[in-house]
Design goal:
The chain has three helices and five strands, in the order H-E-E-H-E-E-H-E. The protein is of the alpha+beta class. The chain is elongated and about 65 Å long. Strands 3-4-2-1-5 form a five-stranded mixed sheet, covered by helices on one side.
């Protein structure tokens, strides 16, 4: 018994559609700002952390940026109170990534 037959048994009244599903992706443009983003280095509970602050756009855009940074660097982190908190000292790599996207950055601490 294949999948189509199983679906017919589960949903006998359903009429399958032969139209292909249309999904349209919307390109997401990040807000470029006037003030530089701040990349700070701190030690929390004896461990190195990098904190990125100063984004002037919406929180949703900043969350998208946080996810992209975390996946490219393969590090853990979180988004709290308008700041991206990453595990480890990655200021140089993060600043390079942000500058490639057109952001101004400022290195703070250590």
């Amino acid at each position: 018994m294949d999948l189509q037959e199983q679906l017919k048994n589960l949903f006998p009244d359903h009429i399958p559609s032969n139209e292909p599903e249309v999904s349209q992706e919307i390109a997401h443009v990040l807000y470029v700002q006037k003030e530089p983003m701040i990349c700070k280095y701190e030690k929390r509970k004896g461990k190195a952390t990098t904190i990125i602050e100063g984004y002037e756009g919406s929180d949703e855009d900043f969350k998208v940026l946080a996810k992209e940074i975390k996946t490219k660097l393969s590090v853990g982190g979180s988004f709290k109170d308008g700041a991206i908190i990453l595990q480890g000292d990655y200021r140089d790599k993060i600043m390079k990534m942000l500058q490639d996207k057109g952001f101004k950055t400022k290195r703070v601490g250590g």
